[in-house]
Amino acid sequence: MGFVCPSLGKPAKSEVILKKCVSGCHSAAVIESGLDLESVGTGSRLVDVSTTECPPRHRVDSVDGGTLQEKISQSSPTCGASMPPGGGLTNGEISCIIEWTRNLAAGGQE
Question: Domain segments of the chain: what residues?
Fold first, then answer.
């Protein structure tokens, strides 16, 4: 089942990441910005990994949440454009993704 977001009470990867972030952008087949969020081992591609857009900033880290957190929670992030393109995440989904990335940064399961 994977990590369940406290904010939504749902599995983060299957109920939020795969439905909102993978379609068209970050799947195993379409790896936008070099980031596959679909395949197993997502944490190893996110945590403490430099972005392709704004190196040496990390995609996810335990210090400031990384660029992923910034891109999903701000309309004008300092690194690249907000995600997903055109918006579409509820506040609950944003909270869930942040909880999931914090869990990954702490060495937790997907």
Answer: 8-105
